[in-house]
Amino acid sequence: MLAAGAKAPIDASLDSALPGSQVLLVFFKIDCPTCQLTLPFLERLHQSGRLAVRGISQNESADTREFAKAFGLTFPILLDSAAANYPASNAYGIEIVPSLFLTSVDRTIEWTQHGFSRKGLEELGSAFQTTVFRPGERVPEFKPG
Predict the structure, then answer these.
(1) Distance CA 24, CA 102 (A)
(2) How does pLDDT run across 91-131, given as a tens digit for each residue?
(3) Given this model, what pLDDT does residue 9 score?
(4) What are the DSSP E strand ranges found in the chain?
(5) Fewer beta carbons within 10 angstroms: which end of the chain, N or C?
(6) Chain-wide mean pLDDT for the chain?
(7) SS3 90
């Protein structure tokens, strides 16, 4: 997995996902329980309007649409095709989902996380003046991908 400080790869399928501002890329699979836990919290970041969030699904289009609807996801989701051997996932060195990358305007990766980390998401939310977790929510500290 690419580390903080690396340049985000130039990939035709992801160029539209990098809007010329900071963006959080999240690679996921719809049948991953840790992804199912994580992505609704990332939706809160997206809804804040303070950080662009882009999903990269390793599943087919129809299944991804159903997943987004079931979990209330409104951020844009791109597809990383199995038929093409997951070019975006391979470019980022994805071995575990979910894998998250915060990229800067110049495509430098500023922060990464794989799996679910309450502390990591709290820090990310704090950096963008957004509360990711609501008072009273029962959220695990960590869940591996």
Answers:
(1) 4
(2) 999 999 999 999 998 889 999 999 999 999 999 999 999 99
(3) 87
(4) 23-28, 52-57, 77-79, 99-103, 109-114, 116-117, 142-143
(5) N
(6) 93
(7) helix
123 within 8 A of 117, measured Cβ to Cβ:
no
Q: What is the CA radius of gyration of the chain?
A: 14
- Strands 52-57 and 23-28 turn out to be parallel
Tokens describing residue 107:
């495509």
Pair of tokens at residue 14: 């992801």
> Which residues lie below 8 Å from residue 73, measured CB to CB, with a gap of 6+?
39, 40, 43, 55, 67
Angle at 66 between CA 93 and CA 136, to 5 degrees: 80
Question: Which residues partner with 142 through β-bridges?
Answer: 117
Length of the chain: 145
Q: Sort residue 76 into left (φ over 0), alpha (ψ -120 to 50) or beta.
A: beta
Q: Is the C-alpha dihedral spanning 92, 104, 41, 60 positive or negative?
A: negative
